[in-house]
Amino acid sequence: MRGIKSTIALAMLASSSACAPVDATFGDAVKTDYSLQVINPDPRPAESAVLEGGSGDRAASANERYRKGETKQPQSIQTTGGGKGGGSAGSGSN
Questions:
Q1: How far apart, in whole angstroms, are the C-alpha atoms of residue 77 and residue 74?
Q2: Please, which domain of life does this record's source organism belong to (predicted)?
């Protein structure tokens, strides 16, 4: 009786794995979309960048400036080439 139950259990286990088809390209769309959104997968830090955990002195001075209300304003950067574009998205002129 015990042998029959184990044989039936093994047969059910083997047949349940046949229900899910194996696709070698499963997940490729997600991987492709992810890779298209990654700008630089292996960025090189600037020479002046703090590495490996940061600097306690810089963090302490930043915390002190924050408490005194003397925070530094971030530098603005321009992300376009500076040429005039012909787009009207977001102009608000309806």
A1: 9
A2: Bacteria
CA distance 13 to 57: 60
Q: What residue has token string 């093994």?
A: 10
Q: What's the CA angle centered on 14, arms 11 and 18, to 5 degrees?
A: 130
pTM greater than 0.85 (yes/no): no
- For 4-29, write each residue's pLDDT tens digit: 888 888 877 776 665 667 788 888 99
CA distances for 62 relative to 13, 34, 72, angstroms: 60, 34, 9
